[in-house]
Amino acid sequence: MSKRLIIFSAWCAFLIIVAGVAAWFAWSPFSDDERPATAAYRGPTHK
Amino acid sequence: MAEAVGTVASLPLDVSPIQIGTTFSLDGNTAQAVGRVRWGWQDGSWNEWFLRADDGRPYWLAEAMGMYMLTSEYPAVLEVPAIRNFVDGNPIAVEATVKAGGKWLEATDIKEATCLGSEGDLPFPTLPGRTMINVDFRNAEGDALSVQRDADGTAAWLGRWSDLAGLQPKNLRPLEGWTLPGTLA
Amino acid sequence: MTLARAVTCPSCGGSIEVRAAGYTVTLACRYCGSVLDVAHEDVRLITAYKRANANFAIELGTRGTLFDVEWEAIGALRRRSPGAIWQEYLLFNPYAGYRWLVVADGEWQFGTMLLDRPDGAGASIEWRGETYTLDDDATVETTTVLGEFYWRVSRGDRVQCATFARGSDFLSREATADEVTWTQLVPLDRREVEDAFAVRQRYKPRAGLSANRHGFFQAPGTGDNDLPMMFLMALGALLVIAIIQYVMSGPRLCANNRFDVAVGAATTTHKIGTIDVTRPWQFVTIQADSNDFSNRWVDLDYSLVNRRTQQSIDAYGIVEFYTGTDSDGRWTEGSHHGETQFAGVPRGSYDVYVDTGSHGWPVDPPANARAPNNPWSVPEAISVWFNACTSGYSWGLFWIFAILLLGAPCLILWWRHRG
């Protein structure tokens, strides 16, 4: 077990915990709610 | 055995851990370093320590590069044809093999050496400037054979290679800046 | 009893201390790099150089403890064979003798000269009861010399070096015209050496010269074999995260409905249904699927209204589809399906509303006048089926975790192979 491996496993454990917390709060940076206040724009988002 | 008064050329400083008075434990005997000869050759120099055991037996301990060759006289090998040839003044080849003491050994280096000086009690006169040809033989088991031919004749010494710890030395020379490693304390 | 044998370099005049006095034969001046013969009382200049190359990972004179013995690094060599370049250090202890430290490809080995010789010739040899097989046979050249050595060394020295391997232990046989030397090499833990000798990382030898890394110390280079383990751990952690995300998304309770949205008409509010968020926090995902249409879009403004507090959480979705032709031929854009995700919806009972408004592109279809004599004509409308469910999966977050986990080992792999 090299030092690098120990640090990496700590990193993996940390990310798992973060994922657990995010799942608990059902958090996502990609959600569609709370439209930005500025977007009064409605309509086509393509071409 | 004639003992020469210790003649001393001013021996150069070295960091040998052995000094006159260092004792070794060999085959159940204790032997003490009583004299030293320093030989020099084209590419370096080495010490040969003369040891006398409690029971009076003589040994030589050649020291070079942190390795030690402990031998006692073995004239029988002088009868072996390859050695006979050498004794008669002919050269000997590297990797020539001989059988000594029931073991096969191979010549690993040949040096022409000059005496640089000596100290302590030695069994023969060693004047600085005296030259000899030294042939070392080794094998896979760590056995060692040393054959030396000089102006007075040829002598052969049979023994083994060892590191310092394997000789169980006591009363080693104190060296400034170095402490004895655990294996030797 | 002092140990110093001080010599003056005949080339640059620098003052050097010979550490292994009595044993050292060659000394390369630490100032100018000139090679001196110190085997005898007088110091002879063998080769003069202008400047010593002292960019070695271990500074000469450094002492370090390995295997319970304190060693002093008194000599340093840079050597190379086709395909590899490495550094060797001569370690000295007056009671223990000489040893070697070899560093190649980031890995360290401890070398001991053999007192006994291996048996056998050819590709397989035996030493102390173990069999070693031929691993490499190459001409090794010494390119830089610094410090003290107990034999004659110079820059440009070439030896034929055969290496025999048994696992990660090696026996190395170096042969010159006059003599053959055998050395045993065993791997050392990198941290142990680098702590003991205050290794200067930036001077460590760089990776093999050629793309073919078959070099002198091949097998020990795999000392960084924690990389497969890192990949394994990253994938394992990613799997755990995927399971956590899936399991904790919670019970899936849905409400669905279908509405027809008139194109070009005013925005209308519809209630899709009621859903219950049972976990303290949950995602709510609303899928909208429409019938086939072209060149129209449908704005979808969703509201989750908490039945108890009447607080509303809003989100926006759209279903749109366009077609046309241009110089490359026919094109299409958009989809008849739209998915909208609410994150972090607190526990509670919610009425799900959608405000719909649909228009044509680039312009609304002509105002639909009921023909006086066609009672069946109706305004153009798009049918949309809504499915509003608690729970959902955040794929975006999952891929972020994937990058964070696999990124490090992938980077290491890339860096290694470009080096």
Supply the key terms.
heterotrimer, B: 185 residues, mainly beta, 1 helix, disordered N terminus, C: 419 residues, Jelly Rolls, eight-stranded antiparallel β-barrel, 22 strands, elongated
How does this model look, in words?
The complex is a heterotrimer of chains A (about 45), B (about 180) and C (about 425). With about 45 residues, chain A is mainly α. Chain A has one helix at about 5-25. Chain B has one domain (about 25-185). In chain B, about 5% of the residues lie in helices and about 50% in strands. In chain B, strands 2-3-4-5-10-9-8-7 form an eight-stranded antiparallel beta barrel. With about 425 residues, chain C is mostly beta strands. Chain C has two domains: about 55-220, no CATH class; about 255-390, Jelly Rolls, CATH 2.60.120. Helices cover about 10% and strands about 50% of the residues of chain C. Chain C has helices at about 190-195, 225-245, 395-419, and strands at about 5-10, 15-20, 25-30, 35, 45, 65, 70-80, 85-95, 95-105, 105-115, 125, 130-150, 160-165, 170-175, 180-190, 255-260, 270-290, 295-305, 310-325, 330-335, 335-360, 380-390. The two termini of chain C are about 50 Å apart. The model of chain C is unreliable at about 210-225 (pLDDT under 50). Chains in contact: A-C, B-C.
Widest beta sheet: strand line-up of chain B: 2-3-4-5-10-9-8-7
- Count of strand segments of chain B: 10
Count of DSSP helices of chain A?
A: 1
**Biggest sheet features of chain A:** none
